[in-house]
From TrEMBL:
It comes from the Bacteria. This is DUF4913 domain-containing protein. Pfam families: DUF4913. InterPro entries: DUF4913. The lineage of its organism: Bacteria, Bacillati, Actinomycetota, Actinomycetes, Mycobacteriales.
Length: 172
């Protein structure tokens, strides 16, 4: 019983002290706010904290709204041909009908947007060197996906496979 009384007294004292300290801190803070220099400094610090919190949580808008926008406004102008050689360029006007190309271009768009957000001033050279040039060589190379598309827009087909017959006679 005695320990219960001690506990109750302790809790009551703690609450009284907490209330007293809270009131004193609030009064001191109110007096500080009357000082214009302090109030201005506090407003500036709070504003900076709010701005940095907003910058951290606000994701920048993408430059291109989708892969089609990216191809039309970045890829095609970045890898041009001359008017005389357009019909010989290894490119398909219907690139989006070629799944393997669509996936590469979608991947390029995603990495472009991510790199642009992470390093707005220096990303382009690295993006072109490490990503775009590599994939565009794969897509447009002689013998590549589009090597027969320029004149007739030939659709691509998957690589052939010979079905394997398993021990139980099933094909896979």
């Amino acid at each position: 019983m005695e320990s219960m009384i001690k506990q109750l007294v302790f809790e009551a004292l703690r609450e009284a002290v907490k209330t007293q300290v809270h009131e004193e801190v609030a009064a001191q803070f109110a007096r500080q706010l009357e000082d214009e220099d302090f109030a201005d400094e506090l407003e500036m610090v709070v504003g900076e904290l709010a701005e940095s919190a907003t910058q951290i949580t606000t994701k920048p808008e993408p430059k291109f709204k989708n892969v089609f926008d990216f191809v039309d406004n970045f890829i095609r102008p970045m890898y041009p041909t001359t008017k005389n050689s357009q019909d010989r360029a290894n490119w398909s006007k219907q690139w989006y009908k070629h799944k393997e190309v669509g996936q590469r271009l979608e991947a390029l768009w995603v990495i472009y947007e991510r790199m642009r957000q992470e390093d707005p001033e220096g990303f382009l050279e690295k993006f072109l060197r490490d990503h775009a040039d590599y994939h565009m060589r794969q897509i447009m190379a002689d013998g590549g996906v589009f090597s027969y598309c320029s004149a007739s827009d030939t659709p691509s087909i998957p690589l052939p496979v010979e079905p394997e017959v398993t021990k139980d006679g099933m094909k896979r």
